[in-house]
Amino acid sequence: MTSTLSPPGAGPGPSTPERVALRHRLAERGVDRTLLLLLPGLLAVVALFCYPFLYGLQISFQPTTGGTLGSYRAFFDNSYAVGSIAITFKLALPAALINVGASVPISYRMRRDFRGKRLLLALLVVPITLGTVLTAEGIVEFFGPVGWFNQTLRTLHLIHTPLTLTYNYWGVLLSLVISGFPFAFLLTHSYLSGIHPALERAAATLGADWRQRFRHITFPLLLPGLMTTFVLTFVLAFAVFPSAIMVGDPDGRTHVISIEAYETALERFNYSQGCAIAMIMTALMLTVIALTMALRTRLYRGATGGKG
Amino acid sequence: MNPTAGQPLPTQQPAPHEGRTGSQVRELRLEGVTRNYGAHTALHPLDLTVHGGEFVALLGPSGCGKTTALNCLAGLLPLTGGRITLDGQRVDTLPPEKRGFGMVFQNYALFPHLTVRANVAFGLKMRKLPKAEIGHRVDEVLRLVRLSEQARKHPGQLSGGQQQRVAIARAIVLEPPLVLMDEPLSNLDAALRLEMRTEIRRIHQQFGLTTLYVTHDQEEALSLADRLVVLHEGRVSQIGTPADLYEHPANPHVAAFMGYRNLLNLTIASTDTTGVHARGRGLELRGTPATDHPLSPDQDVVVAIRPEDIHLAQHDDAAAGPGIEAVAEVVEYHGRQLHVEALTGAGDRIHLTSTSPVHPNDTLSLTVPADRALVFPREPEELQEATG
Residue ranges of region Disordered (chain B) (predicted)? Predict the structure, then answer.
């Protein structure tokens, strides 16, 4: 702002036009009182995210032994700990892909009005309100060795010995799908309603059957939204913690990175390494987000003609 | 111009258009096409026969069922009743992608993620034509709509008029048996609308495509179409050539649409061989019956008159008989003429044009040539409309 208040000698001539009020000049640059609206949000971000993050970051560089990078070195030297990265990816990637994949056909169908649409919508979104504990309880009951799922399969003579779907990889994956799907569905649903229905109708009059309409029109227009949805559900799944303990095998196949961080910090009381693991976790998530967003910039992201 | 417009095709051969074979279609027939939305009937049984190469406009106010009719034809809405045949082949049972009709949407519905070229090529690609042929045909159509320069741009980078031309190009590149246009000019500004109107007519003539055009703008319909279908509340009011409708509207509703702004509720005083004498609401005038049924004295009628057919009385035609006395209220300047809204003693509004100066609050003495005042019998449900 001070540049506009340059000394008179710097101006091209003595007859500078009458100065506009400071408030107007600031408003020209987007500085006005509505900026204050940012304040509460910014405060929350700084206090609840930036400060703890930076605090953890500096702790991670101050281990009791091994120098600045000691905590990181200790993590990467421990094959059991490093293995948690692969375990987490093996859970989070399929969970995110299943959630996004399943939400596309369902939201595609939900665009039209039909009887019971509101009921179906409510049923699909209800898992959001269920806590992880309740979901885990349900999974144990329903998918357990003598749960309804196995009983039904047995009655239908599809299997002879019950499938093991709890206290292992599958239990956690089921839990991630159940809790992550509503988010994926709601996002996809709103992205899809942002695509003007006339586009598909136009494609139909040009001779495209429903498969071609989806492949050439709807899917390309939806893809950027799907990538955003994927990133969000991936991040949710990557931070999996309670279900990995309750319906998983936390010391074996579902020893995910957040459990490793928890055990290091709060069971072995190595705060520095715990923070280091949290930082590694953050870096991995940011890498996936960056890769997805980089791919996304290569797609068409303009207007899709609809209300979204 | 299409020489066969408005008449049944006398020969097998459609008229040739600049070396093209013209429209491949000979006859599109709609028989009792009906569409209901629940209990509401949006389109009452519609019968219409469109001949090859013809340009037919569906005209009516919003909500009259014209877009419903077009969507039924395109296959985007299933029919509630009736059938549509194209050269004897039933098409109303086919999904839209099997009908092969070109459609131009009101909001253009261009694919925003595809270039202009890919938009136009889309239909050809869906038909799995060889690449070379697609390229050749797209180039030709883009040249025709003067968009060769814009081929690599995305729709978002084009102006409204250019987007409109892409939409037309995309529909006609398939050389469809029928082109459907849903108010394609309604989103454009006035100057561009005139320009595109000429463009659409030019393209129609060049390709000889059979076209069904939906609009609420009577000027657009009159200037573009070979034949007009006027719809009112889902029913056909009149079908005819622009001249038919302009000169001989079938009812006060069509008359109002064709520029008869003055609709006066009068009563027949007397009839004779040269016309009728109507009076009421402090007015008295001579008119021409616009109906096949004879009018009898004391019958309630609606008299329809265009603003340009009402003249200021000259001093020497006092002998012409009684006229209309009215006080000018609003005077609008329209270049060579003035548009005047005047109020009669009984409170009826009269619209007229004048080339001589008129000022607000002037008392005007008006005359109407008897052959320019159309007299319609008044239907009970037309009462409210006519007074409006």
Answer: 1-23
Could you tell me which of A217, A186, A221 has the C-alpha nearest to residue A296?
Answer: A221
Residues of B in contact with A220 (CB under 8 A): 113
Q: What is the CA radius of gyration of chain A?
A: 26
Q: Do A207 and B95 touch (CB under 8 A)?
A: no
**Sign of CA pseudo-dihedral B113, B119, B122, B125:** negative
CB atoms within 10 A of CB A215: 12
Judge: A207–B174 Cβ closer than 8 Å, yes or no: yes
- What whole-number percentage of chain B has pLDDT above 70? 89
Contact list in A for residue B98 (CB cut-off 8 A) is 207
pTM: 0.78
Three-state DSSP string of A261-290: HHHHHHHCCCHHHHHHHHHHHHHHHHHHHH
Cβ(B207)–Cβ(B53) under 8 Å? no
ipTM for this prediction: 0.78
Cβ distance of B113 and A209 shorter than 8 Å = no
**Are residues A303 and B105, on separate chains, in Cβ contact within 8 Å?**
no
Residues of A with Cβ-Cβ distance to B119 under 8 angstroms: none
- The answer to whether the CB of A151 falls within 8 A of the CB of A198 is no
How confident is the model over A164-176, as a mean pLDDT? 91
